[in-house]
Design brief:
Length: 543
């Protein structure tokens, strides 16, 4: 393969992957996005004496950095340095994954003549399980950034992925990878006999159409589940996060939100929902009842005995003497005590009860310095996104809010909504409906907030839970259990919407069993890596 053809393949893969991505992409391109790159990988595999592993790594990085940039460029609006770090680091991890799969493939092919091993290599099963393992691990560590998980790329065509309630979003990644690998194998095959091409085309058609057909049947036959309903009012205050939100008068902002809510709230309303960090007053959890914002909300609640309020807030907590403290705890400059800062969700009701949840999937480099135990001396370098900076605290449990009437609510804060298994644990803990509170104004009027919105519909499908979404600015909405977005608000406009949401107690297969595809891929790729090491250090020495 000439350098021109090689570079053309890399560019073509980057174009296909970029042009497939929501919210504006053409989804079918995702099923051939990796094909040119896999053709390059096969060329390097066939001519191992000519190319080294570093060649594949560099070629892959060149291709995937273009994809990462085209999909995530809008991060620049929040932080130029943060955008560079996220894009380059994510591409690095993807390229390492691709290269590891290539190395394993070479080792197994050289030393194992077994037909089953050859089948694994021929159909690039190594690449599939390694990539799924990368996505699985990338959801649960300190440098997590699963925004470009392949299953997310299908969010725009949600009617074709209703089976996410069985597989979760990883099932979409598996589907995309299998089709890409199969297409690449057809092209890489030395034989282009008419009969084989017809059979291959037929199998490819089945791989694509059967999941779509099943999903469309599920979509047509399903309806929202839940006999009991709650009446929910969602507020979108539209307060500029770069201007008045963290520098303006916090009480004036609160009154603005209450006035918006008052236009829709009545005696039948169960929940009034405000966005992430809606309360910007300095709030110490040790004295919540003394906080003026909390007092104002409780005055409002007295007018509506049935009502509960869910709101985001920036809070802090002082650790008492002898109380165990987290690795993110800060020491007061003028004392011996320690405290933690949190991105928090609160539920207030008419009984005076205040329920607290701390955001636990934090944005790396913005809300949390990665590996805080090691990096604590550098936490002052964390990017300033308004509110508290440095490493925020988290909590281990997936807290479910329970209203005085018994409704169980899942409080999801912003970035947390892109984590499938993380959210499923709320449903396992009894959540009957999902509330997403977010502040998407950091990115301006770019694809970022639209991607964030439609990723949320995947959580509705996986859990079969209705969603109320309150964004500081566009897009607030409701999402039903099939993923349909209802009453979407406009960008950069104050708004208030109202709907009745069913409370669903049923657990989907995905909620019951979690990310079983990720678990299986992890152990399979680990086994393949051990086999590769075995061939290197044992079989190679004997030969």
């Amino acid at each position: 393969m000439s350098k021109f053809r090689l570079l053309s393949c890399l560019l073509l893969s980057a174009i296909f992957l970029s042009a497939s991505w929501p919210p504006y992409g053409f989804t079918p391109l995702l099923f051939v996005g990796f094909v040119p790159l896999l053709i390059v990988e096969n060329e390097l595999f066939v001519h191992q004496n000519k190319y080294k592993n570093i060649h594949l790594f560099l070629y892959t990085y060149l291709c995937l950095v273009l994809w990462n940039f085209s999909v995530s460029w809008w991060l620049y609006f929040a932080s130029g340095g943060g955008a560079v770090m996220a894009i380059t680091a994510n591409t690095l991890l993807m390229s390492i994954t691709f290269t590891i799969a290539h190395i394993i493939k070479k080792k197994l092919h050289h030393f194992f003549k077994n037909n089953f091993v050859r089948w694994i290599i021929k159909y690039n099963v190594v690449f599939i399980v390694c990539w799924l393992t990368f996505e699985y691990l990338h959801h649960d560590w300190d440098l997590t950034y699963p925004w470009l998980t392949l299953g997310n790329g299908l969010a725009a065509d949600y009617k074709s992925i209703q089976w996410y309630s069985y597989t979760g979003m990883p099932g979409g990644s598996l589907w995309v990878l299998v089709v890409n690998v199969f297409c690449a194998e057809i092209i890489n095959s030395a034989s282009f006999q008419k009969q084989k091409l017809i059979i291959s085309a037929g199998l490819l058609l089945l791989l694509i159409m059967v999941p779509i057909g099943i999903s469309r049947l599920l979509y047509a036959s399903s309806a929202d589940v839940g006999e009991k309903k709650i009446n929910v009012v969602v507020v979108q205050p539209n307060i500029d996060p770069y201007g008045e939100k963290f520098s303006g008068n916090y009480m004036e902002q609160l009154q603005k939100m209450l006035d918006l809510g008052r236009s829709k709230v009545d005696s039948t309303t169960d929940y009034l929902v405000f966005p992430e960090t809606a309360l910007t007053e300095d709030i110490w959890e040790n004295n919540l009842q003394q906080v003026s914002s909390i007092t104002e909300l409780q005055k409002f609640l007295k007018q509506y005995p049935r009502l509960s309020i869910i709101t985001g807030a920036s809070t802090s907590k002082v650790y008492k003497n002898g109380e165990p403290r987290s690795e993110t705890a800060h020491q007061f400059k003028d004392g011996e005590d320690y405290y933690d800062n949190f991105n928090t969700a609160l539920e207030l009701d008419n009984n005076g009860k205040i329920q607290v949840y701390h955001k636990s999937r934090l944005v790396p480099g913005v809300e949390r310095m990665p590996f805080p135990g090691l990096m604590k001396p550098f936490e002052k370098l964390a990017l300033d996104m308004g509110g508290t900076t440095g490493s925020l605290g988290t909590q281990k449990d997936r807290t479910v809010f329970t209203s005085s009437a018994g409704a169980k609510i899942c409080p999801i804060i912003c970035y947390e909504s892109i984590y499938p298994e993380f959210i499923s644990k709320y449903s396992k803990n009894g959540a009957q409906v999902l509330f997403i509170i977010t502040n998407d104004g950091w990115w301006g009027d770019t694809p970022g907030y639209k991607q964030h919105l439609i990723y949320g519909r995947l959580r509705a499908i996986e859990n079969r839970r209705s969603i109320a979404r309150s964004a500081n600015t566009g897009i607030s909405c409701f999402i039903n259990q099939r993923g349909d977005i209802e009453q979407p608000t406009q960008w950069w406009q104050p708004a208030v919407i109202k709907a009745s949401l069913p409370l669903n107690n049923e657990l989907t297969f995905f909620v019951k069993h979690g990310d079983y595809l990720g678990h299986f891929s992890f152990y399979t790729s680990l086994l393949l890596m051990l086999l590769a090491v075995y061939t290197q250090f044992f079989i190679a020495k004997k030969s």
